[in-house]
Amino acid sequence: MSSVKQCPLHVSCSVHRPVSLEMLNRREWVKCFALGWAAALTGGARSTLLADISPGVNAANVIELKVSDYPVLADAFGSVRLSLFNQALPGGKMILTRGPGDVFYAVNAVCTHSGTIVEPYDNTEFTESINCYAHGSRYDIQGNILTEATSGQASLPKFNTAFANGVVRVEIPSLGFKLNTVTMQSVVGNSKRLALNFTQRQGAVFKVKYTPDLVTAPVPVNFATAAGGVASISQITAPNNSARTLWVDSTQSRGFYFIELVVTLETSLP
Predict the structure, then answer these.
(1) HEC string of the chain?
(2) What is the dihedral angle through the alpha carbons of 198, 204, 205, 207, rounded to the nearest 10 degrees?
(3) Exposure pattern of 205-228 as b/e (b: 16+ CB <10 Å)?
(4) Rounded (5°) CA angle 233-196-241
(5) Are 214 and 246 in contact (CB under 8 A)?
(6) Is 0.70 topped by the overall pTM?
(7) Residue 35: CB atoms within 10 Å
(8) Torsion angle of C-alpha atoms 240, 197, 261, 113, degrees rounded to 10
């Protein structure tokens, strides 16, 4: 095993995988957390998304999901409907289905007929489709239209996916989620107030997490939504698409903060 070496985020990083986090290989280890961008206490944003799915992909548009968090995805044809924005926006709800082996398919969950939310992929005999029960539209596991509710109906928009070490990465072009700036607002004694500015999506739920070294499992921390407010809030729901600032108080001499988008499991099959 290689020895510990200095990593690009200026902390010493062990190469072995801790039980609490599922890392990718050494080349990708620094992009290790669920979703978001980390901020060092010394300032500056650092990407914590997993490696790009394809050349040129915008890392701000990639989310990461651990298969172990969704038990039905452990087996072929398991399917879940996930909510990212808690409303029917493009990419706001998606169906993620495991095909045979390690192939995953992700599609928009909004029916192309009248905008009704479709159900997860149903692999039962004589069905084998993603179904819209409002008007009878049916799609295959990849989102291709099988049964039209109206002539010329489009297939479900598809999202690129990649899978490694129990982690599925999904590229959602409309996501645009990133941490813009990190600034030190004030220092009182050994406590620092940091301002984390990021791009929020309407209807999405966000938390703030902290890790001392990018190896230790991150933990939630409370924050304030105003510069002079008390840091007592655990999560927020974004009212619009805009830049947003959250404030955290830290007594740590080192470490990383990052914004987490909360992904909600709505329903699953089988």
Answers:
(1) CCCCEECCCCCEECCCCCCCCCCCCHHHCCCCCCCCEEEECCCCEEECCCCCCCCCCCHHHEEEEEHHHCHHHHCCCCEEEEECCCCCCCCCEEEEEECCCCCEEEEECECCCCCCECCCCECCCCCCEEECCCCCCEECCCCCEEECCCCCCCCCCEECEEEECCEEEEECCCCCCCEEEEEEEEEECCEEEEEEEEEECCCCEEEEEEECCCCCCCEEECEECCCCCCCCECCEECCCCEEEEEEEEECCCCCEEEEEECCEEEEEEC
(2) -20
(3) bbbbbbbeebbeebeeeebbeeee
(4) 85
(5) no
(6) yes
(7) 21
(8) 30
**Dist. CA 94–CA 70, nearest whole Å:** 14
- Measure Cα distances from 90 to 97, 99, 117, 201 in Å: 18, 23, 11, 11
What does the alpha-carbon distance between residue 47 and residue 146 come to, in Å, rounded to a whole number?
39
Per-residue pLDDT tens, the chain, 270 aa: give them. 333 333 332 232 222 222 222 223 333 323 333 333 445 554 444 333 333 345 566 777 888 888 999 999 999 999 999 998 866 566 689 999 999 989 999 999 999 999 999 999 999 999 999 999 999 999 999 999 999 999 999 999 999 998 988 889 898 887 877 778 778 888 898 898 989 998 888 889 999 988 887 677 788 999 999 999 999 999 999 999 899 999 999 888 777 788 888 888 999 999
